[in-house]
Write a structure and sequence with these properties.
The complex is a heterodimer of chains A (199) and B (382). With 199 residues, chain A is of the alpha/beta class. Chain A contains eight helices and six strands. Chain A has two domains: 4-52, RecR Domain 1 (Helicase, Ruva Protein, domain 3, Orthogonal Bundle); 74-196, Dna Topoisomerase Vi A Subunit, Chain: A, domain 2 (3-Layer(aba) Sandwich). In chain B, strand 12, helix 11 (336-348) and strand 13 (351-356) form a beta-alpha-beta unit. The longest helix of chain B is centred in the middle third of the chain and has 47 residues, at 173-219. The chains are: A alpha/beta (199), B alpha/beta (382).
Chain lengths: 199, 382
Amino acid sequence: MFDGAIADLVTELGRLPGVGPKSAQRIAFFILQSEEEDVRRLADSMITVKEKVRFCSECGNVSEEERCRVCVDDRRDRSMICVVEEPKDIVAVEKTREYRGLYHVLGGAISPIDGVGPDDLRIRELMTRLADGRVAEVVIATDPNLEGEATATYLARLLGSMDIAVSRLASGLPVGGDLEYADEVTLGRAFAGRRRIEP
Amino acid sequence: MQVLHLELTNFRSYEAAEITFAPGVNVLVGPNGVGKTNIAEAVGYVSTLNSHRVAADLPLIRQGNDQAIVRSTFSRGQREIQLEIAINQGRANRLQVSGSPVRATDFISQLQTVVFAPEDLSLVKGDPSDRRKFLDEVLVARAPRYHSVKADYDRVVKQRTTLLRSIAGTRGASSRAGAESTLSVWDDQLAAHGASLLFGRLSLLNEISGLVSQAYEHVAPGKSAGIAYLPRSFSDIPSEDSLPRNRQALEELLHKEIALRRSEEFARGVTVVGPHRDDVLLTIGELPAKAYASHGECWSMALALRLAAFELMRTLDDSVGDPVLILDDVFAELDSTRRKALAQVAMTAEQTIITAAVAEDVPAELAAQQFVVTPGQVARGN
């Protein structure tokens, strides 16, 4: 369809998540028509992110320092660790402002199809962090899908022998939604996880 | 239910085609290979997201294109609903109900169809997978949430089997112990999702078995026919009678069986426990149909299964009308008694879509709205 540079750009953009061939083409032409300085800024920010950002030595979150913002923050509750699959999950939990503990990023979920087993996740690092006995509770916040559930079960078993409270995020109804529109699996889970209302 | 209108774009042999169906019987007539079955297939696909001819979507897209579109308007009671599917090559299909994007589970709960086609002979003669597919299709049509139960279960089996295979290839006791601890997590998932699917199938069988006997009696009077679940994934449970009718108990049973068969699974690198290994036993006069039935009896059995599914759907407590009955090229395969029996049911259905190579194949009482199909085109006949 196109030759040379444009074709290369369309191909590269098409490899990005959520970008199909049509969108890739649209973005490529947008870039072509943009001012050179704008394009340079975009290119620089992409290179900078690769150069500067690394992973927190403690929790595995993205960070520009040795340890991430959450881990160096003295106000955080160091007796709680919330286990998530990806750094972007931390952003989601942080937005709630409900949670004041620390995090641990696994870097994925157990999925034999994708060749991911427990050893490929940062589970050993988690065990090391828990070894000193300062952590009293682990909240497992993996995705509520098959692989996330399997990972949660695996962790729960592993931590079962230790003197640490292990909890799993509840699944249930979206706030502000209508009961009639909830799908059956979600509604079923919500029933299973119902709680008593104290009078 | 009635399909009012069907519009195909780059679907199979059709670059663009439009058909307006009538209530009652619709007959599509045309020589072999002109695309009658493609129409029947499109109606079935827009109802179940499955083709009765192929397992993959790719053959549905007209050669040289990367997208096929099927649009259909159907009526349910007083309501008219529009369905649209874009079948995409190499990308996820796009589903819409009356203009809004929906998920598969919500899409397949809209239009209900029962398709009877020459391929159905494999329900009797074919592999267990053909019979499981029949059962699961009816189960999903009856309770659409089983669409995701089935999808989850299939994924668990795939995950677990991949893991078993990798364990089989591992040397060294320590890495093997690690893999085994991961396996126990997938055991839980297999038992939980497997129990849900098994429970659904058993409940369905309970509902449909009487209807299968009745339908067979209607199609081929004189001999009695039966259907029963064969839980082949359990080594010491020979028939469904000894299975508990309770999800929790089924889950425990699956757990026990998984533990029992561990070494076999390690040796073979396959998941040998679970409803994906089960079968359905069809009997005609006490004898297993697969081994003993004559060719004619096999047809009667296949027909009885489809008619039972049709009957089940139309008599549900929350039934939204008859499913659309689709009879794809089957009259030519049946003798006059069976033709008559099928014609009787077709007459009572809200809507029936029939395909035939020659009009004479179709019983005279069904000579209603006729369409003449020529390559790539459909025109109203009579």
